[in-house]
Fold this protein.
Amino acid sequence: MTDPVFGPAPQQATDDLELVQLLTPEGERVDHPVFGREFSADQVRGFYRDMTLVRRLDIEATALQRHGELGLWPQSLGQEGAQIGAGRALSPQDFGFPTYREHGIAWCRGVDPVRLLALFRGVDQGGWDPFEHNFGIYSIVIGSHTLHATGYAMGVQRDGAVGTGDATRDTAVVAFFGDGATSQGDVNEAFVFAASYNAPVVFFCQNNQWAISEPSERQSRIPLYRRAQGFGFPGVRVDGNDVLATYAVMQAALQRARDGQGPTLIEAYTYRMGAHTTTDDPTRYRLSDDVEQWKLKDPISRVEAHLRSNGFADDDFFGEVAAEADALGERMRRECHALPDPAPRDIFAMVHAEQTAELAAQQAVFDAHVASFEEVAR
């Protein structure tokens, strides 16, 4: 059996699929026999704006951490094309389950960047409403959320929100994770369940080639997207620094899920230009020449080159986006400094929707402990 979009069924596939690309590093538009599609100038300008603002978000957060305002920050520098392409392909009813580096996806789902800062400042637990944004809380435990995504997708399936033909109802679920997570048992279990139940879930792997200090070639003997074959669903590798190609591939996979055709694995082949987190020193384990080579494939620069060479944007547009990025950076600094510290007692309100007897007893002990200091002060 041959899938009309993703090609031969896994048992028939023998050759690697090519890296899907629609925009070269030089900004030249190319076609693809399966995923080729047209983009309006407004769409491409929108991608450029999104990527530029998300990069500024990342740069400002890194600076805030360096100044002691955040405890930690996982950088997304260089992965803006993969994240914006994937994030903008989502429909409002689709639901995303992120790992801890999905700042671009959060941006696309309408999460205020300051909420991300609050999490890494340690003043809340990532407290945006998942059902307001259809975007879950950041998952720190590597790969665990892929099971959550698969379970949610199975629920969507049983709620009759798949394959109805209603574009406003049919729902896809996405699990976002990195190449390192593919070595975790949870991810492989999620693949098993998704395939067994034909769940409407897209597994979106950003292969930035480094699981902290472990290169991807030490994690897998084959390209990551080909792992899908062993579980019985399609896999495809896309140029993750090409926002147009990522959008096109993600859109096709999401529609496949919404139509009831089951899971897909997308490997967005990209590169982590920064550190794993701000506690990491990547100069200890990777070559500067590699970084310099990947700078030539920068996702933002190639879109700017495309816009300029085709007359789709002028200096006024780029100046306006730069000014918007400056304003975002200033707001992030100002509002980060103003984030209030949480009341210690609030931790008891963040565990269960309805407080249990055991938790109430713990809270009583805590309250008595705090009161004892007040008595000493008197």
About this structure: The CA atoms of residues 19 and 307 lie 23 Å apart.
